Amino acid sequence: MSFLIPSIASFLLPVLALGPVPRHIAFIMDGNRRWATSHNTSIRTGHFSGFQALKRVLESCLALEGLECISVYAFAIDNFKRSREEVDALMDLASTRLIELASHGQVIAKHCVRVRIIGRTELLPDHV
Fold first, then answer.
1. DSSP letters along 21-42, please?
2. Smallest Cα–Cα separation from 74: which of 26, 35, 8?
3. Is pLDDT above 60 for 6?
4. Distance CA 111, CA 123 (A)
5. What's the rounded Cα separation, in Å, for the pair 90 and 44?
6. Cβ distance 79 to 93 under 8 Å?
7. Tens-place pLDDT, residues 50-71
């Protein structure tokens, strides 16, 4: 997803700003493992890079007048079929990065964003 950021920033968001801006936009986090493999780096690094890309996209989207809701699909049930090491790394990333996004001056706090985690939340570790 990281490679898409310049394209999104330079093309898609200015087009959306011309209007009408959708009230709801959704992102599916996909391709971080493929990106990591193609860049000869660890899967953990790929997931972290995907988070960094998402953070930049969220900042840009939140600047759009009229956008009311952003959904992020970040973890599917099938992801639990991955190695325990990868699932644990994803859960740790989710936990630490949500805290980061909510910290003072960051995306969630700065824009008064409400976060709702939906789905089979009972499958998530307590720290998430």
1. PPSEEEEE---HHHHHHHTT--
2. 26
3. no
4. 29
5. 8
6. no
7. 988 888 888 888 888 888 888 9
- Rounded CA gap, 75 and 29, in Å? 8
Query: Is the distance from CB of 17 to CB of 67 less than 8 angstroms?
Result: no
Contact between 69 and 86 (Cβ < 8 Å): no
Peptide bond into 6 cis (omega under 30): no
Position 74 confidence tier, pLDDT thresholds 50, 70, 90: confident
Q: pTM, whole model, 2 decimals?
A: 0.75
Single-letter amino acid code for the residue at 12: L
Distance CA 63, CA 58 (A): 9
How many separate helices (H) and strands (E) can be counted in the chain?
Answer: 6, 2
Q: Judging by beta carbons within 10 Å of its beta carbon (0-12, 13-18, 19+), is residue 124 exposed, middle or buried? A: middle
- Cα distance between residue 97 and residue 105, in whole Å: 14
The CATH code of the domain at 2-123 is: 3.40.1180.10
Distances (CA, A) of 51 to 31, 45, 65, 69, 114: 12, 10, 24, 19, 18
